[in-house]
Design a protein that fits this description.
By secondary structure, the chain is mainly α. 77% of the residues lie in helices and 0% in strands.
Length: 177
């Protein structure tokens, strides 16, 4: 829940100012804001990732699995650790996907969502029928689906018609203005 709270706050904090700057026609400032938001998002996701792995045992207890020898505890712990692997990917999706309508790329939003769902279901099936990775495998399937969805999402930011373009996104070393 902490991850989703941080991701949603960062997404809302980026989306408003980026929209304003694009509306004013200042793509350079919009990209600077987005760059700062993505840097903050990746930093937060790495902190959450490290804390999630470091504190996975106490978090599992906080989630209600108090008996460390129980199957519930082991399954919850395994699921949490598998999900942590996908945190940076999901953070980028939550930050970047709401910006697609600013560039009139609504179809990609659906494609990203569809790819994420299809890959998750397919990887769950692989886990259940072949890998037999248990709860870790199930959450790892979700994590893999986040990165597959990023493969559909990120090309938008390389498009020449995009307001928010990748070369302005990371390469510019000078501050706007």
């Amino acid at each position: 829940m902490l991850f989703f709270l941080v991701a949603d706050v960062l997404s809302a904090g980026v989306r408003g100012p980026v929209s304003r700057e694009i509306g004013k026609g200042d793509k350079k400032q919009a990209n600077a804001i987005l760059r700062a938001g993505v840097l903050a998002g990746l930093t937060a996701s790495l902190v959450i990732l490290v804390l999630g792995f470091t504190l996975s045992n106490p978090i599992t207890v906080l989630l209600g699995a108090t008996d460390r020898s129980s199957a519930l505890y082991q399954g919850t712990l395994a699921y949490l650790r598998g999900f942590m692997i996908g945190v940076p990917g999901l953070m980028l999706i939550k930050l970047l996907m709401p910006l697609l309508p600013l560039d009139s790329d609504i179809k990609r939003t659906g494609a990203v969502t569809a790819v994420m769902a299809i890959v998750d279901i397919a990887m769950d099936a692989v886990n259940v029928f072949w890998v037999k990775g248990g709860m870790f495998g199930m959450s790892l399937a979700s994590s893999i689906s986040f990165y597959a969805a990023l493969c559909v999402l990120l090309p938008h930011f390389f498009s020449k018609r995009a307001n928010l373009r990748w070369e302005r996104f990371f390469i510019s070393a000078s501050p706007p203005g």
